[in-house]
Amino acid sequence: MARIAFILLCHKDPDAIIRQAQSLTAVGDYMAIHFDARATLEAYRQIRAALDDNPNVTFARKRVKCGWGEWSLVRASLNAVSAAVEAFPRATHFYMLSGDCMAIKSAEYAHEFLDRHDVDYIESYDYFQSDWIKTGWKEERLIYRHWFNERTQKRWFYTMFELQQRLGLKRKIPHDIDVMIGSQWWCLRRRTVEMILGFISERRDVTRFFSTTWIPDETFFQTLVRHLVPETEINNRSLTFLMFSDYGMPVTFYNDHYDLLLGQDFLFARKISAEATELKRRLGALYASEGTEFAISNEGQSLFRFLTGRGRIGRRFAPRFWEKEASFGREWELLIVVCKKWHVAKRLLERIRQTTNIPVIEYLFNEEGAWLPDLGNIQTSLGKRHRHRRSLMRMLFDYFDTDRLIVCIDPANIDLLEDFCRDRALTRLLDVECQFTDDYLIGHAARVGLAGDHTPTETLNAILPAIRLDIEHESDRIRDAGFANLGRIRETDASEETARVLAEFLSLPQDKAMEIAQTEHLFAD
To answer: What is the tens place of the pLDDT at every residue in 356-389?
Structure first.
């Protein structure tokens, strides 16, 4: 009978990880956990303390700092797979999971399903001939080397790419390898996993090649399985049910999706909302159940296409079951820097980015040209960003695969601040108070259209007091709004006081906050 070793890659919510491990191993299956090295040591120790006595749980010997699109995700997977192969000699299958996945079938059903056919379940499409990549780079992912993270080190990522292009530094794909692509959520047989581990120990050239490709978790295992396993022993599908919204982001499932999920022809589902406590409770109990009957209707994907298709053909969208919740989610933390001098806020955010690696987005609701990832056109205009503000923020959390995000907002946008602070997510505000010289106010008047190149000096002198009062009024409105988590740093504050406020705002140790507080020329015009 099949015995599954789950390969769990996770980076947050230790309580949920513990529950997931206990649920999946209670019926005799196994689990190997890789907990991201970027997460806190306290969280990792909590998981180890709860699960070290469980003989069906093991841990990757080396924790890796993981980043989206990096080789680090493949390295973490290999570390966990190696630990599982060594610790669980009776495991017949190895199933890749994330912390957002949960079983939608019983263990009894899953084992019988895997016993039915002696195959590997993995999406594996021809990289160049298939249309798996809909838009964006294709060949460029492979023939150029990518050393930096596209999301957190964007400047270096694209600088090195453009430099290689200019110098013609293309490289060849290993001659005997046909690159494949597909979902990273796979289920492989033991002999396939052992062949992969043996192959990479012999073919270091292949590992070196993939280690500098972009998004290798969509190509590495997919390519090696197709290279090592006969086509007749590969079922070209994932056993994890997931759907994507109109904007290309994963659909999140909530409490009222229990029956829908059980009816799908999959063993697991992703993503389960952290707030869907009742759904998690029911699914957690499901895996250990016996004699449960599953009526497979498999309507999830077709229903999804129908509901979204109504809008595409000019008809009003039908109610969307995957958008029941308008909240960001309690598991997320939105940090908002409020500052009238945009260059000061941008300077501060750049320093925070360098020091903490928290994703940051500058003035996305104020600057049309503010950098945003491609989110399916929702990001293309200020009007769309304001109308779909909460959807936009949820998509950014998903894009960066983070539970913390920093954005800049102009203090004039009090409605945005009030809206975000009413959300169930934890929202913190940092009000950055600057000194405003007359020269700055004149420049501000020009930027907002109150003055031009030929505005007489007398007119400027007359409107400067009104502009200064208007800026002070914006600051007063923020003070009077009674925001729960509001910190304030002032241009006139000592570094120690600024560091204290930053430490609380960013949840940082004092010494790290001091590095940010001592940013050179932070408030300079």
So the answer is: 888 999 999 999 889 998 887 788 888 888 888 8
* C-alpha to C-alpha distances, 210 to 9, 65, 68, 160, nearest whole angstrom: 19, 18, 15, 17
Instruction: Report which DSSP code applies to 105.
Output: S
Q: How far apart are CA 407 and CA 396, in angstroms?
A: 11
Bridge partner list, 97: 8
Summarize the confidence of residues 283-312 as an average pLDDT: 73
The DSSP code sequence of 427-470 is EEEEEEE----HHHHHHHHHHTTS--TT--HHHHHHHHHHHHHH
Instruction: Give the bridge partners for 428, in sequence order.
Output: 335
CA separation, residue 258 to residues 97, 275, 308 (Å): 19, 14, 21
CB 3 within 8 A of CB 30: yes
Distance CA 307, CA 295 (A): 22
**Which one, of 45, 46, 78, 47, lies nearest residue 61 by Cα?**
78
Structure tokens at 18: 């513990």
* Amino acid in the structure at residue 72: S
> Which residues lie closer than 8 Å to 461 by C-beta, 6 or more apart?
none
CA distance 258 to 278: 9
Stated as kind and residue range, the H or E segment containing 234 is strand 234-235
User: Is-contact 298 261, C-beta < 8 A?
Assistant: no
Helix, strand or coil, per DSSP, at residue 51: helix
From 29, 26, 58, select the one nearest 284 (Cα to Cα).
Answer: 26
Give the Cα separation of 216 and 209 in Å (integer). 10
The alpha helices in 186-251, defined as continuous H runs, are 190-202, 204-211, 220-228
Q: How far is the C-alpha of 207 from the C-alpha of 222, rounded, in Å? A: 13
Q: Give tens-digit pLDDT for 203-213.
A: 999 999 999 99
Interatomic CA distance for residues 75 and 78, integer angstroms = 5
Amino acid, res. 285: A
The number of beta carbons lying within 10 Å of the beta carbon of residue 387 is 11
CA 53 to chain centre: 31
Strands 30-35, 234-235: parallel, antiparallel or unpaired by DSSP? unpaired
Q: How many residues does the chain have?
A: 525
Peptide bond into 271 cis (omega under 30): yes
- Dist. CA 222–CA 114, nearest whole Å: 19
CA distances from 440 to 335, 338, 340, 446 (A): 27, 18, 11, 10
Q: Which helix (H) or strand (E) holds 488?
A: strand 486-490
Give me the helices (H) in 215-341, please.
220-228, 258-262, 277-286, 300-312
d(CA 185, CA 323): 23
The more confident residue out of 306 and 190 is: 190
**Using 50, 70 and 90 to split pLDDT, how confident is the model at 247?**
low
